[in-house]
Recover the amino acids of this structure.
């Protein structure tokens, strides 16, 4: 039986695993070899889209050191899209030299957040994204522009959906092949997602966090709105899992468990991705926030 | 703007706060005075329906000791429905003698779970519920039959929605004024909720747990299906918040934060319920699982 409520869900979605980047960037640094072991487990689980590295200063983000070495070590598995985050033109040059398949760049829908994090106006950031897109186009590499604070800013509160949609348009006009709307501080709600997607259209990715315990709920709201591309992180890593109100990403295994039950195909094997979550838990040395990783999928029997 | 996705949500729901019972039953025992202080904070937050006690053996559940004293201490605040869980006829007698407004009784949709927990067949449990209902009817007190494992059993897996609906019918025929469907081990999903409610109708309460991180998501699915009655627990207490894969109830403040944003009225003040969550956190002596309690609602600014 498939009930009325579920008929509009997509048959299949793409999950981009961001654990090796967003998930690990705030952890004590893992070696390149450890990260390759994790990526291997993620590939074994069936993931085909992975954000594997950030070409940033290893001084600023020690956990992301060795990005080029990591890309070389992974090689180019068939059918797999390897993504790297780049903060600027120099990062993009390094990532392209390393042979990455896709770049992500970030820009905030919140002027205050953008100013505080990259000391630029939104307009200046759009121009910087355009430069990266132009460079990447020369290498035939697509750029995904990740719009932070798309569902609210801790400084300004709600960002007008029309402003988010306008920014998405500007980024597309600047050469971004894809737009991902990020809920950087856990302010997304089903209402906000519906309101923003009503103006941007559903042809965006969603990058959701569990800061307020609403990540998976918002992913479900995104599915209902027709979104077919989501960023998630193995084990739900991201942010500080120790701090009260952990701010991790939606856990990949929780997204897969939900989609399995809804009949939405992800191509990811739930038991294998839970194994990968247990592996990264060992590596980081503390419990991952994901509950499905510890309790198992609903199919698990006592 | 209110988007298409949200138009079918109810205008108003009733939240029954179960923190003083389900939330505290697994914690180190709090005194009656501490529990009265907590209940006072919950009333201040605007809650009108509270499960405040369980009339069970204090030897079996030390945290629930002093139920009659608690009811007497609370008195009968105007407009407030005070509920107590009773495991059997003897508990019901004590609860009615204490002057409670509503009884909850539990019965499992899972034969194996019911056998293991109360050593009775489902049929025998229905008969026991009928006895409690008959006794309560004499006192003019309604009984809410809480059906555990309504969305799946850790022993048998999915319980057929038709079996859940049949049990609900039998319980109503046995005198239950209300039916609450409980997701005892976190096996509910939006699909299961839709499938079960398609047969039971939406005139049931939902009692959801976060065992697999899906409690709030399932509450949202329930709202979309037209359910207007939910059990939640301040701070998300319930189960063991220390264990990996904490199995707490949906946090009241997370439900309120969601409903506030959706325009679904609960009558509960978000700041006050967060204060109550901080109070119970102090009382139990460890962090409550709720994220909104620690991070604050999305309206909170940096």
């Amino acid at each position: 039986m498939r009930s009325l409520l579920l008929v509009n869900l997509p048959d299949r979605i793409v999950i981009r695993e961001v654990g090796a980047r967003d998930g690990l960037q705030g952890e004590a640094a893992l070696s390149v070899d450890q990260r390759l072991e994790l990526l291997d487990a993620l590939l074994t689980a069936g993931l085909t889209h992975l954000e594997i590295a950030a070409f940033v200063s290893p001084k600023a983000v020690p956990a992301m050191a060795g990005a080029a070495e990591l890309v070389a070590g992974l090689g180019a598995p068939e059918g797999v899209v390897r993504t790297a985050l780049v903060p600027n033109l120099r990062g993009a040059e390094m990532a392209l030299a390393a042979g990455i398949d896709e770049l992500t760049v970030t820009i905030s829908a919140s002027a205050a957040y953008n100013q505080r994090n990259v000391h630029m106006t939104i307009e200046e950031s759009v121009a910087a994204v355009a430069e990266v897109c132009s460079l990447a186009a020369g290498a035939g590499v697509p750029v995904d522009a990740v719009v932070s604070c798309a569902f609210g800013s801790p400084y300004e509160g709600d960002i007008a959906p029309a402003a988010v949609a306008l920014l998405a348009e500007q980024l597309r006009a600047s050469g971004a092949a894809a737009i991902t709307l990020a809920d950087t501080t856990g302010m997304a709600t089903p209402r906000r997602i519906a309101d923003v997607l009503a103006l941007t259209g559903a042809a965006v990715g969603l990058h959701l966090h569990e800061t307020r315990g609403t990540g998976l709920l918002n992913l479900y709201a995104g599915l209902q709105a027709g979104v077919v591309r989501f960023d998630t992180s193995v084990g739900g890593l991201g942010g500080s899992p120790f701090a009260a109100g952990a701010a991790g990403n939606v856990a990949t295994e929780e997204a897969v468990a939900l989609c399995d039950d809804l009949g939405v195909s992800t191509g990811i094997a739930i038991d294998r991705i839970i194994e990968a979550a247990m592996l990264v838990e060992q590596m980081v040395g503390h419990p991952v926030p994901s509950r499905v990783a510890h309790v198992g999928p609903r199919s698990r029997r006592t």
In short: The mean pLDDT of chain A is 94. The beta strands of chain A are 14-17, 49-54, 81-85, 102-108, 143-148, 178-182, 205-207, 229-232. The two ends of chain A are 26 Å apart (CA to CA).
